[in-house]
Amino acid sequence: MAAGSAALLLSLLGALGLSDPGPLEDVVIERYYIPKVCLREAQMGDFIRYHYNGTFKDGKKFDSSYDRGATVAGVVGVGRLITGMDRGLQGMCVNERRHLIVPPHLGYGSIGVAGLIPPDATLYFDVVMLDIWNKDDKLQITTLAKPEHCNRTVENSDFVRYHYNGTLLDGTPFDSSYSKDSTYDTYVGTGWLIKGMDQGLQGVCIGERRRVVVPPHLAYGENGVGNKIPGSAVLIFDVHIIDFHNPDDPVEIETVHRPEGCNVTTRDRDFIRYHYNCSLLDGTRLFSSHDYEKPQEVTLGANKVIEGLNSGLLGMCVGERRVLIVPPHLGHGESGARGVPGSAVLRFEVELISLEEGVPEGYLFIWHGDPPENLFEQMDLNKDGQIPADEFSTFIKTQVAEGKGRLMPSSDPEKVIADMFGNQDRNQDGRITAEELKLKSDEDREKVHEEL
Ligand SMILES: *[C@@H]1O[C@H](CO)[C@@H](O)[C@H](O)[C@H]1NC(C)=O
Ligand SMILES: *[C@@H]1O[C@H](CO)[C@@H](O)[C@H](O)[C@H]1NC(C)=O
Ligand SMILES: *[C@@H]1O[C@H](CO)[C@@H](O)[C@H](O)[C@H]1NC(C)=O
Ligand SMILES: *[C@@H]1O[C@H](CO)[C@@H](O)[C@H](O)[C@H]1NC(C)=O
Ligand SMILES: *[C@@H]1O[C@H](CO)[C@@H](O)[C@H](O)[C@H]1NC(C)=O
Predict the structure, then answer these.
(1) Is 82 assigned a catalytic role?
(2) Axis crossing angle, helix 413-424 with helix 389-401, rounded to the nearest 10
(3) Which of the residues 67, 109, 144, 451 has an alpha carbon 20 to 30 A from that of 437?
(4) Which reaction(s) does the protein catalyse, per the Swiss-Prot or TrEMBL entry (predicted)?
């Protein structure tokens, strides 16, 4: 049966004059998979990266890139490959699959390759294209989304925090910041990044999304890196800028609202109450005083809040509202804090609720004029030669009420008076004697003498 039908086929071909078709004149190309999107077709002189299987007519494999565990990279169309491949690969898109039939004169001819390819062999190739680039390729930057306001853009030596997805041209992911659950943080334009990204991040603004396509000569070159980035690979980075700053940045202060007739403003040592919202520049809200019953309280200049917030709260009047942009070196630094990522720029909205004039550092109470000459006698209200805590407290409160002096402002004046009493009651017996009582200014003077 089988022999009979073969004979029939031959005679049919004979009738059509094709009984001896002879070797193929040219490569036969079957494009059996063409991707929907084809941004570029391989041209003569392009570098390409691909996988292939090579078989004989009977299906026997003579070579395969897969067996070597690596893709093949090279220049197409310039005679470095067998002519059949040079021709058969031209015009391919990334991810396209082709079946090629290469006649012997476009392959290894009548000589073949000793021990591998016999003379006059027709070769069959299955090829999938993975990468196309040219040594003249420049970086390609596409803006995917840009915020409405872009007051400032990245320049050399700025420090940027961004998220990214990295893929090869064929769509294989090689790396992503999201998998590490943290932004990628780095200086731009100072050689920390591959050349392509040092260039690709220039001029980007906060919140922007960009696609940066980096040819291998601006990435990891012919050798690639690790097991995810092959040699001669084009890299696609989709980046989303979270924030950036420069190590020289001061706090940025924008006054949103300033009440009229504002002539008393905050200074160092003042005790203030304020409301605030704190967020990252991408809008992520971190903290807010509105989550608590009462506004935040602080003594300015007492190292109780980050430096940037402290300076942003100076020169404010009650009722004023500001937006502060605090760079990390005036915030929580490179290591961040609980709930604050390292090197993050912070945005504060602040509103000053109240302000009490402070006293110099180290003082709990100051006189507005000269202190009374006979201080002990004045304090000893019942004239019994000693001053217990309640007498001391009554005296100090009277001075404050009469405007003769003021206490260090705090949320708990009783505590301040108790501390003052504790300082004066040097032997801690619950009462101050005439010998014990000393003004701080005199004390300081004595100390200076001792030191001298
Ligand atoms: C080559 O052969 C391997 C094993 O059969 C197969 O997985 C791979 O898809 C083939 N490659 C091409 C380009 O056809
Ligand atoms: C940019 O500047 C405008 C006007 O000066 C201001 O309203 C806006 O808030 C600024 N945007 C950012 C992100 O700083
Ligand atoms: C990265 O990929 C994830 C998952 O597809 C996506 O949600 C995210 O927006 C991408 N990021 C960028 C910067 O393109
Ligand atoms: C500003 O100063 C003037 C004159 O000293 C005073 O009358 C006024 O009450 C002050 N305003 C405020 C808001 O303190
Ligand atoms: C904080 O945010 C809330 C909600 O947006 C707003 O009502 C409040 O005024 C903000 N506080 C300050 C100090 O700006």
Answers:
(1) yes
(2) 120
(3) 451
(4) [protein]-peptidylproline (omega=180) = [protein]-peptidylproline (omega=0)
CA geometry: angle 7, 9, 15, nearest 5 deg = 105
Does ligand 5 lie within 6 Å of residue 277's CB atom? yes
Q: What's the gap in Å between 444 CA and the centre of ligand 5?
A: 45
pLDDT over 90 at 178, yes or no? yes
Alpha-carbon distance values, 172 to 100, 235, 364, 442 (Å): 25, 10, 67, 77
Closest residue by Cα to residue 295 from 266, 316, 274, 320: 274
Cα(408)–Cα(425) distance, integer angstroms? 19
Q: What residues have CB less than 8 Å from 211, skipping those under 6 apart?
A: 140, 141, 142, 144, 236, 237, 238, 239
What pTM was estimated for this model as a whole? 0.82
Residue extent(s) of CATH 3.10.50.40 domains in the chain: 22-133, 140-245, 252-356
Catalytic residue from among 63, 120, 175, 238: 63
Candidates 3.30.70.20, 3.10.50.40, 3.40.190.10, 3.30.280.10; correct CATH number of 252-356? 3.10.50.40
What ligand 1 atom has the least distance to the C-alpha of 52? 13
Q: Cα separation of 169 and 216, whole Å?
A: 11
Q: Which atom of ligand 3 is nearest to the CA of 162?
A: 13
Task: Compute, in angstroms, the gap from residue 52 CA to the centroid of ligand 1.
Answer: 7
- Let me know: does 193 contact 186? Beta carbons within 8 Å: yes
User: Which atom of ligand 5 lies at the shortest distance from residue 275's CA?
Assistant: 13
Active-site residue, from 47, 50, 124, 125: 125
pLDDT digits (tens, 9 = 90+) for 185-229: 999 999 999 999 999 999 999 999 999 999 999 999 999 999 999
